[in-house]
Amino acid sequence: MAAEPSDAGLFDKRGVPATIRWIPDAEVSLCKACGLLFDWVRRKHHCRYCGHVFCDLCTNFRSLIREDKILTSPEKRYLSVNAYNPQRVCEPCYTILLPDQSLLCETSSNAVQPNSITEAGSKRFLNSPYSFTLREEIRKAAYSVKNFMYDGLIKDQSIPLPLLTNAKGIAFLTVLKVGFVVTGRVGTGLVIAKLPDGTWSAPSAIATAGIGWGAQIGGGVTDFVIILNTRSAVDTFCAQGQVNMGAELGVAAGPLGRVAAGAMEAGPGGIAPCYSYSHSKGLFIGISIEGSIVVARPDVNMEFYGKEVTAAQLLSGQERRPVAAQPLYDALVAAVESPANGLNRGVMSGRSSSYAPNPTDNRAQYPPQPLSAPATSSVAL
């Protein structure tokens, strides 16, 4: 084997890179840290701060870097780098950058960048079942709030105002389901929790996947809004995994549909009482028995917040509310104040449609009184 070209002074005595430049792939065949040979399994990765080439294990670190300090290939300038995302770095560079991370998280992360949604058009009804960023999940959740609660566009599936007012948390999921007899489902979303002061927590990214079987055929995309009625329900989303076992009977045809389902959410945190609402796009007919798992997405959370943060930290209020989540918070406030919820207020007050329940009002306590018009699309057992 040919000797590896030497890079004199690559690291000083502290292990800090002495030279900072983008090293072309063709110049190296060994990892600069562990010295192992690159092959089809052990791939080459560049440190975005010093520019040297390492294997995956030796660059298993992520740090926010000032945009003017991020190194890229001179031959691939057309490939843009999102400066708001944590970048792959080697261990010595990770140590160098560590003191600046708190400031960069507060000024340069995805969480502190403004986010917005489009009010007009059909995009609000066409959420993608799989998103790679929490910013996109926030926009999807805001659209779901507007569709289910705010503008009253899905009138037979509007969520009763007392449920929203007294909710301990809300989970949003967009799920793709397709198959014949045996079906598969996959989707992504987020979960937020109600804090003791009445505000909503920072969002945490979640994903779901599962299989089903039965007399069924078709495919479709469904937006779910899951009202978490107890703190224990929220806690299940803080755990490593959550198993969703239930029986589902439904028909989804055309741009909007309705699903009637009985489900029990069970996870390491215990039984999670919740109500699930949905609207579907597509065609799916049949009866099925389904099993799925809902898990946190720590990689998506890290990309958004610029640091490692757990779902428990986010849902307990240990992380400040991100600027990028403001569209979701605004949509939830508007849902409570929306005229579309006037029927709920009138039923709860028994006198006028101007009544706005609050957590301390006995008339607004969970469970709510039955409404005179159909409002729920699913009931949790």
From TrEMBL:
GO terms for molecular function: phosphatidylinositol binding; zinc ion binding. It holds the Pfam family Ysc84. Residues 345-381 are annotated as: Disordered. CDD domains: SYLF_FYVE. Residues 350-363 have a biased composition (Polar residues). The keyword Cytoplasm does not apply. Gene3D superfamilies: Zinc/RING finger domain, C3HC4 (zinc finger). This is FYVE-type domain-containing protein.
